Amino acid sequence: MPMNGPLAICLSAGMALGLAVVIGRKFVEQGAYPAALAQQNPTASSVPVDRSVETAIAQLQQVGREGQGNAAAAQAWQTLVAAGRAAFFPALRAVREDQPIAANWLRTALDAIVEKEQAAGRTLPLAELEAFVTDRRQAPRARFWAYEWLVQAQPSARDRMLPLCLDDPSLELRRLAIAYELDRLERSGRADSRAELERLFGFARDRDQVDALAQRISQAGGQADVTRHFGFCTHLEWLGPWDAPGSQGYSLAYPPEKEPLAAGPFRGKDQREIQWQTAETTDRYGLFDLNKLVGKHKDAVVFMRAVLRAPQPTPCQIRVTSPTAVKIFLNGEFLFGREEYHHGTNFDAHIAPATLRAGDNIVLIKVCQNNQQESWAQAWQVQVRICDATGGPIPALQQVIRQQNQMRTIPLGARCEKDSPLPEK
Fold it and tell me: Are residues 138 and 203 in the same domain?
């Protein structure tokens, strides 16, 4: 057995999870899936689910960070693997996007079940796998796993499935679908078809695919607006710097956190008077360099504010990229925070699911800077975008901005070159 109860109890959360991931990778590398899924067996879903399987799944769904629930999870993992094919689809359906640790445990259990079925000469049902892939009510990551197992067993399923996945909520399936369509265009001699490239650009969500498609559209004589596609806030009001003694700015509460529309002026760092100011960026990815905008400061905090206008209640995600600690607020309510400094600038590192109300909404981003002196710890910057759950644009959203002492609305993501007129909406 890959993980014995006493061993799992002794492992930390990170070690236990790491071992589970390694177990799953071993099965993939050994090519277990194709043989296990070589034939259809439509009766698999009719196997009754044992109560022990339901209990094991529930235990895995409760596993948390820092080792919480690891001992129970190790035993639950063994129970699922022992149940074999009867646990396969119940475990697959139990995967949830908001439970990544539990999903990793379930994935490695599923890997082990496939290996066990192969060793016993049994098969899993391709028809049921395909039905699972097409069921968009299921977790996107679980549907992608099912797709992988399906096409490894039946490569022709790729031609059947991927054309249906261009708008898929699974970003992995969507990415494969776009790559598939690009390959099809290449093979058909239409690789420079502007209309086809623009169509695929609308579906793309991964930054590298978006950039590549934008470049190809440009080469074909068109223009793709990457900034609007991603929904970047190109105009922000900023307030700062505030003093953050001892690099404690993240935990300290400043006036904008209590009242985001308070006009000021305020007393900021070194007791200097500060007030809200406007800034705009022409950067393709909505980057605001705070060292240039606010000045190079350490032990400091700056607030960035945007006003978004929605025609109706609108589910969205507020996504922030910054190398330093951030907090995200919407209409005065705290949504998300992460206190990490100089951890890189991974795209969309900070994500806050939210719902915009009909009318105007105040998005407030608190961006902190600590006192590290190393050369690699000097960056202070922020990018803010508002998008749907897939990372795509929400066309109806507008941004309310102040320019030349006038309030105007522009489409979210609109970039304005210096001295160019803004569209009135």
Answer: no
